[in-house]
UniProtKB/TrEMBL annotation:
GO cellular component, one term: ATP-binding cassette (ABC) transporter complex, substrate-binding subunit-containing
Protein name in UniProt: sn-glycerol-3-phosphate ABC transporter ATP-binding protein UgpC
Recorded topology in the membrane: Peripheral membrane protein
Main localisation: membrane
Superkingdom as given in the UniProt entry: Bacteria
Cellular localisation: Cell inner membrane
Amino acid sequence: MAEIANPSVSIQNVSLNYGAVSVLQTLNLDIADGEFIVLLGPSGCGKSTLLNCIAGLLDISKGRIFIKGKNVTWEEPKDRGIGMVFQSYALYPQMTVEKNLSFGLRVAGLPKDEIAKRIARAAEILQIEPLLQRKPSALSGGQRQRVAIGRALVRDVDVFLFDEPLSNLDAKLRSELRVEIKLLHRRLQNTMIYVTHDQIEAMTLADRIAVMKGGVIQQLDAPQTIYNRPVNRFVAGFLGSPAMNFIEGQLQAGDVGAFTTDGVSIPLDRYEFDKDRGSAGMPCVFGIRPEHVAFGDAAKAMPFTAESAVEIVEPMGSDTLVWTKLGGRNFSFRVEAEKTLRTGDPIRIGFDPARASLFDTQSGNRL
């Protein structure tokens, strides 16, 4: 992505240390006006910590944070022009929905007519008008989260921060609210920064994803780019359900070059291979996603094919995950739900190495 001229949020060389423990390590991130950025990673990777630094809930050790061109590094949260939605709903149980939405505005001393206008707008956008006189105890989990989003919405700010807002909801509600958040962003066109460990949320919501590990952004790019061309083995393994197949082996020299392991040789002539970063005999890891593997007659047309046998069949509803062996390692591929395969059935599998990923065993980086 080209350099962002006037970023809505700019994180410059930000570090956060707790004594000798480094939680965030010299992070740099520019977020365009109106962009939806998702901070994705496992527990403890620093994603919520970074969000809390942007919000002003944590003081950074080094670096600067700008919001709409203003240095807010040491500003109070209320002065940063942000609205935040937390993982817990954090609603006042004794107040009605309307009072919950208006509380911050009343404390700020806004006129009553302005408060009423903002509440009406937020209630309309989030479709919670019939709930305004209820208390949180009379609401479902999804309704409570809508109110929590509405409380941020009434602040009329430029930047919204979401800290795993859907993690307390069941799968059906998560799916429904995910769509609503995407529609909300499309309607408002505000900058949104969203923290999650759920790759489906990240892939479906984000304009760009920042994949984090150990307080470092491993890769920052569009969802499909990260999915198809992960920069390292960690990113490749974190995104994708079911996970990418990984096979350990080594590079083999030649006009074409190949990846070899336990009697299997995969040609790399169709793989965009950086020959300056790999050499003959170099240990590496070959990765291919289960949905990029064909079987049966479709496999015969692929540049690489192999004979194998079905080990395990896992029906998943919309499709079926089948496990076999390749190069002595467990290997999975997806087939249509209508296909009938049984344990022990002989099969032919195949794939195009151009759709694969190749990683240096030592560094984990893409070759």
